Amino acid sequence: MASMTMKLGSKSEVFHRDGQTWLCSTGLPSDLVVEVGEMAFHLHKFPLLSRSQVIENRINDYSSEDDEKCVLQFHDLPGGAKTFLLVAKFCYGIRLELTALNIVGIRCAAEYLQMTEDRGDGNLIMLSESFLNEMFGHWTDTIKALETCKEFLPYSEELHIFSRCIDSLAMKACADTNLFSWPLPENGIAQCPEGNHVLWNGICSTAKPQPLSEDWWYEDASLLRLSSYKRLILAVESRGMKPERIAGSVVHYAKRHLSLLCRQSSFQGRDHAAPRSLVSHPSDADQRNLLEEIVALVPTQKGATPTNFLLRLLRTSMVLQARPSCQDKLEKQIGAQLDQAALEDLLIPNVGYSMETLYDIDCVQRILDHFARVDNEPLDPSNYIIDEGQLMGGSHPLTPMTMVATLVDGYLAEVAPDVNLKLPKFQSLAAVIPDYARPLNDGIYRAIDIYLKAHPWLTDSEREQICSLMNCQKLSLEASTHATQNERLPLRVIVQVLFFEQLRLRTSIAGWLFVTDNLENSQNPNGNLDNAGNNTRVGAVRDHLVEADDIMERVSVLEKECSGMKEELEKLVKAKRGWNLFLKKLGFRSKSKSIDPKKVKSCLLIQKNQSP
Hints:
Strand order of the largest sheet: 2-3-5-4-6
Distance between the termini: 87 Å
Mean pLDDT: 79
Family: Belongs to the NPH3 family.
Number of strands: 7
Strand content: under 5%
Number of helices: 25
Pathway: Protein modification; protein ubiquitination
Structural class: mainly alpha
Largest sheet: 5 strands, mixed
Shape: rod-shaped
InterPro entries: BTB/POZ_dom, NPH3/RPT2-like, NPH3_dom, SKP1/BTB/POZ_sf
Helix content: 40-55%
Protein name: BTB/POZ domain-containing protein At5g03250
Pfam family, one: BTB
């Protein structure tokens, strides 16, 4: 869409430049020199004083002993020599055009020179105001004018040009796109079917235009300077725009201007850098200031801003070493909606000075702590009680706490291979999640197993501590089978798994037998069995019983192995006592230490592996 213009004057061009001097070739000798910055304008008094009260006052106050030209200086004129040239052309009646790019400077200069209607009808203040009012109805021209306001501060603020541009843009951004169709830029214009004409207001002559999406203004807004963009966001917020739409614009703006934001810094993924711009890259200090300003604009409503974007902002703030208050705000906002996070976004590389671990465990700990504080989910134990079918199938109710529990278990499994990860930090992360939020403990068991494998030097006491984080009663059949054969687990844990597995199987078998008895006793009114239905049910139950027999046989084998381990332990203890008696009879005193029961497990397992 073409930019709007206003044509002024009718005379042909009479100004020409000679170095640092502008000359007016009207045929009359110049009697006035106006100096603006380093530029000198050789003009005539009457055309200028007839339009400007300030120039007339300056000429009247000017005194010179010689008959030299009157010299006036306007070094603080808004817009400088470039704008004064346009003002001079207007005073001489020479053709010129008002556009969105020069209107702010012309309006400020006209105010500075007091070019009011008192000096003549159709003066520059009135004409420039008329153009501004018409321009505010056009989105693209208002954007252009807004970006020039900074060059004319404080005049553009005092004349409310800046605020009027912001209000005009905010009104259009908040308007219902189904009801209004503003004159929009080419990338946001409502397109009509091919062959139809589009009028200035977006209405098609033969068909209804396609509706615009709510994000049509994001791209143009992202081109604004930060100061202008901040004012625009505050304006649309005050007009009641939805936080989700504001967040979408902030995300779009951040992706355009924060070069580090779009890079995947996780150790598992490749580095994906944002496309390089043709302009020079800003310094880290400028990027840090920009990031802190963007974080201040992010809506605080829960769920309004995507969690993955907040995590990328947090990661970037660590790289740029933003202020602690900035990082603290992001961590709290992420914690409030942690259930919407993805595991890959939570893997934040450690960029601190210590570099103790690969990933920033302390940051995730703070986020988890905040989630635990703000999660006001009412505790209803019945929502977390799962039956046998759910335990076997792995299904369980989804709540914010259970989703975060799954996320934390996955995170622990990812960081567990780090040999520098201390046991207290692992325990602290896992302990944030209450037991009821883990209907199934397969995830935390997997993380514990990985940690034990990566840290073989842990003592038996430490292994007992880390295994206490899981509930053996909530392991699935597959996890229980793995745990009973896991040599890294303490013996006590293996026995617990065997006990709960046997208990669960006995309960299931008892239920199946009860169903079988009911089916055999059920008869129709004539005393005959409903063979068609009952045979099917009985067959299904028999299949379950066959499966149960296989499972019971496996449990029996495991019980025998456990009993054998217990007998081996007793034999070792008796052998130790007999050897001590033999030494005492010979007059020797044993200096050997007592057998440590915690170390017996490894010996038994070695013997078990060596036995045929």
